[in-house]
Each structure stands twice: as C-alpha cells, then as structure tokens.
Amino acid sequence: MGAIPKDPTRSNRTFTIVVGVLVVLASLPVLGIVLLSTSVVNDHLAPTGAILGVLFAAVPVAPLVYAYLWLDRYEPEPKSLLALGLGWGAFVAVAAALIVQSVGALLAGWSQPTQLAIVAPVTEEAAKGLFLFVLLVWRRHLLDGVLDGIVYAGMVGIGFAFTENILYLGGTYNGTPGMGDSSAGHIGEFTVVFVMRCLFSPFAHPLFTAFTGIGIGVAVVTRKRWLKVVAPVLGYSIAVLAHGTWNGSTLLFDGAGFLLAYVVVMVPAFVSMVAFAIWRRKSERIVLTRSLTDAAQRGLIPYTDIGWVVDLRRREQARKFASTHGGAQGVAAMREYQQAAIELGYLHWRFLRGNPPPDFAARGRAYVDRISEVRPHIAFPSGQVMTG
Fold it and tell me: Residue 308 and residue 384: Cα distance in Å, rounded?
C-alpha cells in the first residue's frame, strides 16, 4: 500500500491548541472547587464523598458517549474534537457558569429561585453553546448539518453533567448545605440524587444543548442569510427555555413539580429528540447516495463504489476484507478512501442545494485528489459490487 494523503482541511491546529489550553486552564479551578465541595467536611479531609461522586457520576457517561458515536457513524467527527467537547463541558463551561453565577449573585443579590430557574439556564447554556459557536466560526468545514450539531452538543452536555453530578453526589454524601443531610455519609440522600440525576435524567444537559446544536447545524446548511443568524439564536433560546422549565419545576408543589415535568415534558422531549436524531441519521444514506451518484456522473468517483461507502454494513464488510488482504495498512487505506468519499458527498450535496461554502472548489479538489490517490491501493470484495 502507498502512503495515504491527509485531508488538508483538518490540519488547522489553532483551534485544537486554543481550546485545549482553555480546557486545561479551566480544569484547575474546577477541580479545586470539586475537591473542596466533596472532600472537606467540618474542616477535615474526607475524600470518600469525592471518590463516590466520581465513580457514580461516571456511570451514565460511557452509554451516552456510545449513543452519540453511533449517531455519528456515517461521517465520524475527529475523536480529538469530540474529546475537546467533553473537556469543554466538564471544565470550561462549568467554570464560566460558576463565575458568572457567583459574581452575579454577589452583585445583584439574586434569590435562589431566580438563580435556579433563570440565571443557571441562561449562563450554563451559553457556556456550553459557546463551544458550538466557536466550531461554527473556526472549524465550520467540520459541520455538515444538524446531526453534527447534535453530536457535538451531546459531548459538551455529557461533560458538563459529569462534573455537575460529581458536585451534587459528593456534596450530598458529605452533607454540604443545600445538597443533602447535615451528617456526612448519608447514603439514602446520596442514592436519591444518583437515581434522579444519573439514572432517570442523565440525558438532560445533552438534550438542552442539542437545541443549540440544531440551530448551528441549520445555520451551516441553509441558503437564507437571515436564518444563518436566527437559527443559532433560536436554538439557544429553546435550550434556555427547556433548561429553565426543568429547573423551575423543582420549585413547584414542594418539589413534586419535578415529577410532573419529567413525565409531561422531559420524557416526551427526549423521545422526540431521539426519534429526530435517528431519522436524521437514516436520511444521511439518502443524501449521500443522491450526492455521490451525481458526483459519479461527473466522473469524480466510480459509481460502483457508492454502495461500499453509504451502506454502513457494506462499509464494515469492505474494511474487514481490506484487513484480511492488506492488514493494518489496507484498513487504513480503506478508511481513508471511504472518509474522503463521504466528505465529498456532503460537500457535493451543499453544491446541489445551491449553498456551497466559500472554499468549495479547493475542498472538493482536495477530496477528489485523495480519492484518486488512494483508489488504486484498495479493493472491494469481488462479486459483491454495490451500486447504492
């Protein structure tokens, strides 16, 4: 196998460096707050709360991440950026929200209900959504539409919920005022918080931020200039409204409003979002098939290769075939080819819709060059040629 050319559009290290530095810097104060809130009881070191907080807060993380990676199978986003999204949510967004809320409470004297139902949703959704807006400005070429927006929003939300759950769980165990019983090690209160936050509603923060992600995705693909501005703002506004409704419900009927909101609002909203995301995922195959068929008619890609790119089962079959006959290098070549074809498909779809990005020609040529260079080094299973 020959050397595999890399995608030049992914070579911009500035975004990764800047965001990575922000994550590292923000992690220091956040970790300090977490340790103070969960490891110190009556001026004595008691690390049990912190340890239990981390362990139990981590329970929903892996299933949620896997679910978003499953949604992202057609055109997998760079793992480094998905990790940065998690880090942004866990540290940068948490730090920003805590600073704004603390300073605001000190200067404006916000009451606890105001903090919970208004200030927290506004600041936390802004802090989480900022990652998506930075992506839109700096790495716009990585966003192909609504599904990408949902995936990145999900990663940020998972990270934010993880840190927040550590604070709640550890604080409850240690009897932090406002979070649980006054005696340390109150397992009953700890269990209630774990069940409510980590088992019943681990999807809350990813769900809220998904509305901002949808707005960002619409802004990327729409041909209407006004919608490019309105969609992200509207998405953020809905995220704040959903978050505020969720938080505010705990203030109603001595806390019983939480259960009402969970059944009437949160579960239907979650089911609807899941159904929408799955529908968008299924539509990806239709979009890519149409786009690559047109690209094949223009001589940009062999028509017989389309099925091995857009059909997920056949795509995996082709990779196994490449592994058997070409080893690790063969799999790398196959992945490179399939990824280049997918990228070309999404880019060409925007061209067909009349909304190509400014760098359409350069990016398109780069993808076609990658396809042409890698194609001689791969082979698909014989006798099983797919045609979309």
Answer: 10
Residue 94, token pair as written in the block: 């948490």
Q: How far apart are CA 114 and CA 60, in angstroms?
A: 29
| DSSP reduced 3-state for 229 | helix
Low-confidence ranges of the chain (pLDDT < 50): 1-11, 177-184, 383-388
Alpha helices in 199-311 (DSSP H): 204-221, 225-249, 257-261, 267-297, 306-310
**Phi and psi based region of residue 78 (left: phi greater than 0; alpha: psi -120 to 50; beta: remaining):** beta
Look up the pTM and report it: 0.87
Question: Does residue 68 contact residue 56 with C-beta atoms inside 8 Å?
Answer: no
322 neighbors 338 (Cβ within 8 angstroms): no
Q: Which of 143, 268, 275 is nearest to 212 (CA)?
A: 143
What does DSSP say about strands 44-45 and 40-41: parallel, antiparallel, or unpaired? antiparallel
Per-domain residue ranges of the chain: 12-251, 287-377
Q: Cα–Cα distance between 369 and 340 in angstroms, integer?
A: 9
